[in-house]
């Protein structure tokens, strides 16, 4: 099986690299579209993250796994910045980000509306000249040509669905087991928020073209529907199996009743493809079905990649289908590495839209091949991927203070002990601490690593290290398995400190999930064949 996968990867990567180069050459020749963005950040915001650069991301998709092209501009001593963006089209959705220098160089999206399941993005068009002022709490104020679009968006993004009274009542209903009532409350809150957002949009209607108005209206409706679907899944995942089943039953009933009237059945293609959230909403709607009706306990991702993939492939057509297929790979490739790899050729043959086939090829190039790392150990000796040729590598990424990292390290003991005398298996930990002394103290503590592991770190670069950026690692712990010939075997092997459905293991009992441990060992053993 591993040999077959390696052959598939070789053929895919060779064709992908060639096509990737040719497309990039053709893009250089394409016409560029410019937009100027200037701004001022509150010094309090700059100090909070110790950041001296602002990053503007052009988003083709808006889920949190999306990467997109990133442009940066230095923040001057006067707290000002200026940047000229080259857009791939006549318009684009962008997000504003900083790097948190005080928290391992993590990308932080600047906003004041709290955490979102989707990126908060803003539409800019060729010819816009935007000036933005951002205060210390993340409040945006735009001025200049085209700024009314961005002010409107910021205002409707900041309608709060999670006010204390609402959260408190939902918690009460949850404790009482009144799940249907809880769902009804949440969905009415979303409907009310959607109505308010649309009223904000209507107040700008005379300033916008019909195209912009309809696009924003679809964004608002799609965002609300996405929020509803995401809540259905969360309802079905509780701390105990009994409560989970009760919540799941209520969620399924609500899901089925919501299918009777589809408000998105007749959306014009010119808006559906341009919308920031429409395709993401459709994907979440399809994924929710598989999350609720899963048979293997995989409530987060469904039971298999292929069932979700073929549902999208067969239910949609044209560029919207291609975008949905790309989102499917983008969001789920880590969870279904081998299965998604086997369907890449089918996806590329299916896709007719060059934009999304190119994005998928780019994803394959970055996420389905091993990165040739060069990392120092505690003595300063550099370790490279190539020196471990012929060995199966288990990479474990962590940072000091990560409680889940400590949990995983403890749970991995039986796995590491099983291969202690096998010279063809090596366990390597990679720490993203920027402070070397902190890293070394954590190794000595024994809380994060094993005595039988090779301990490396990102040489003070933290999350900015090319290895971390290549795999788009933003959450910890994270593990990878690399085969004897340097091929990726899994970018998300089963977490042995979690149950198969993703729940933490109760304290006071065996801290290793036997089911996930068997699957983890099976992956290693297959790689040794």
TrEMBL record:
PROSITE patterns in the record: THIOREDOXIN_2
SUPFAM superfamilies the record matches: Thioredoxin-like
UniProt cross-references to Pfam families, sorted A to Z: Thioredoxin_8 (PF13905)
InterPro entries on file: Thioredoxin-like_fold (IPR012336), Thioredoxin-like_sf (IPR036249), Thioredoxin_domain (IPR013766), Thioredoxin_ResA/DsbE_sf (IPR050553)
Domain Thioredoxin: 364-529
Annotated protein name in UniProt: TlpA family protein disulfide reductase
